[in-house]
Design goal:
By secondary structure, this protein is mostly beta strands. It has 2 domains: 332 residues, 5 Propeller (Tachylectin-2, Chain A), CATH 2.115.10.20; 151 residues, Exo-inulinase, domain 1 (Jelly Rolls, Sandwich), CATH 2.60.120.560. 4% of the residues lie in helices and 52% in strands. It has 2 helices and 32 strands. The longest helix is centred in the first third of the chain and has 14 residues. It is globular.
């Protein structure tokens, strides 16, 4: 067998032994083994295709393959056979992250980072490769790598040159790729090609200049109205003074203006994409109806090493989200398709809560829960708290300090025994006197959308699925709430 044939045979046998109940209801997991970055997210031949970094043989990172799944609704996924394996000279040490674009002839182009084994200096070489196929089987280009070391401008090297995002525009192909500069650190390079095979360097779109992390990964570059968005996943970030980015590995959106003639990008704003404890390497796709859909790896490198491995798979994707701009900020909502999963509804209007209490009908671990905190109608309340995944002394908690305009997501009491980050603080100010929280739960996956997607936090919770309780409390004085819950059908 070839490496690809062996991977396909192994995943087919191993995945068949994993019951559906062993997985989240609507968050994509790998068929078996390890998953990290989303790759090749696109709409092709009537379905959404999502590829991903994949090592089928173990639940830890290994020589990278590309896994593959498709969906009609972004919620229910069908596994397709492994798409790429590290089996050529250009990618012998791994097929790292990349993207996909439909071609005019109806085929699908995959563009990925081929990693070559370390040389005498002990460093791997990373260069960009392509493969073309019918959406199921792909043939690697014999000229790979199509963007080799010789196309890099001065100051850049191939040790950290990866993650191409490709698209077609005005009859030409473009791709952005991450690279590290000797002085400017993390940078995003723009390349152009007439046919996706013959590439030339165009410009450096933006760089950290050692002020926004050491290395940038997983770029995406797209327009939302008149604004151009450059998504990056910077590593070794220092927290900024306004608290927009947390230290370590982060996800950021650089918002600005782009001149398609000169290819100059003018960055005007930096903001977090997701403030949670488990989110990295997002990628977007353009839906047929014009929506820009984002999905990310719902894990974090800092926490994966000692994470428990209760399943024969490890890693999952976030809930796909619709991107939009509001008041100059990139915002996110769960894809509207989630409403097709709505079942039993519980609606409680004008509830007053002070001492900790459970509300009738509000409980579960697969639900879409909307809570509106009426701060104007609760002048004495200084702090509001929502606990979920509650039971057996365990819980995760969302605390909102209405006076300070701060929200704290705390999973330190949810059963974790690891010395990892458990608490995240963000700015959360009521709008027109109201603070809105939308919490999506899918077993151990929790995603919180604050103020209609102004801020988002993705967090995994260790409390067992039997911990179904949800409770509310206010401090300083009573709080007035509107609560709407929909149970979600898997």
């Amino acid at each position: 067998m070839t490496k690809l044939e062996a991977a396909r045979a192994f995943e087919r046998r191993a995945a068949a032994r994993i019951p559906a109940a062993d997985r989240p209801g609507f968050h994509l997991t790998p068929p078996v083994g390890w998953m990290n970055d989303p790759n090749g997210f696109c709409f092709y031949h009537g379905a959404y295709h999502l590829f991903f970094q994949y090592y089928p043989y173990d639940t830890v990172w290994g020589p990278m393959h590309w896994g593959h799944a498709t969906s009609a609704d972004l919620l229910h996924w069908t596994y397709l056979p492994c798409a790429l394996a590290p089996d050529t000279d250009a990618d012998a040490a791994g097929c790292f992250s990349g993207s996909a674009a439909p071609l005019p002839d109806g085929r699908l182009l995959l563009m990925y980072t081929g990693v070559q084994p370390a040389g005498a200096d002990g460093r791997q070489a990373q260069m960009q490769c392509i493969a073309v196929g019918d959406g199921l089987d792909f043939e690697k280009d014999p000229q790979n790598p199509v963007i080799p070391a010789g196309l890099l401008p001065e100051g850049f090297g191939t040790a950290d040159f990866r993650d191409p995002k490709v698209w077609r525009e005005n009859g030409a192909y473009y791709c952005v790729a991450a690279c590290r500069h000797a002085q400017d650190q993390g940078s995003i390079l723009l390349f152009e090609s007439p046919d996706a095979r013959r590439w030339q360097f165009v410009t450096v779109l933006d760089s950290s200049r050692d002020r926004l992390g050491k290395m940038w990964e997983c770029p995406d570059f797209f327009a939302l109205g008149d604004t151009r968005v450059l998504l990056i996943s910077p590593q070794e970030v220092c927290a900024d003074e306004n608290g927009e980015l947390h230290p370590g590995d982060a996800t950021a959106a650089l918002l600005g203006r782009y001149d398609p003639v000169t290819h100059a990008f003018d960055r005007r704003k930096v903001q977090a994409v997701d403030d949670g404890l488990d989110f990295y390497a997002p990628q977007t796709a353009l839906a047929p109806d014009g929506r820009r859909i984002l999905i990310g790896w719902m894990q974090c490198w800092a926490t994966t090493g000692q994470a428990p491995r209760p399943h024969p798979w490890y890693g999952r994707m976030s809930l796909p989200r619709e991107l939009f701009l509001r008041d100059g900020r990139l915002c996110q909502r769960p894809v509207r398709e989630i409403e097709t999963l709505w079942q039993a509804e519980t609606r409680l209007a004008g509830i007053t809560v002070e001492a900790r209490t459970a509300l009738p009908g509000i409980r579960g671990r697969s639900l879409d829960l909307n809570v509106t905190v009426d701060a104007d109608a609760s002048p004495a309340c200084r702090r509001f708290a929502l606990r979920f995944a509650e039971g057996g002394g365990l819980f995760a908690e969302i605390r909102c300090d209405l006076a300070l305009g701060e929200l704290v997501f705390d999973r330190s009491r949810c059963g974790s025994r690891r010395d990892i980050p458990h608490i995240r603080r963000i700015r959360a100010v009521p709008h027109s006197g109201k603070l809105t929280l939308r919490l999506i739960l899918d077993k151990d996956c929790a995603e919180l959308f604050v103020n209609d997607g102004e801020r988002v936090l993705s967090v995994l919770v260790d409390a067992p699925e039997t911990a179904q309780g949800i409770s509310f409390a206010a401090f300083g004085g009573p709080v007035r709430l509107d609560v709407v819950q929909h149970v979600l059908r898997a």
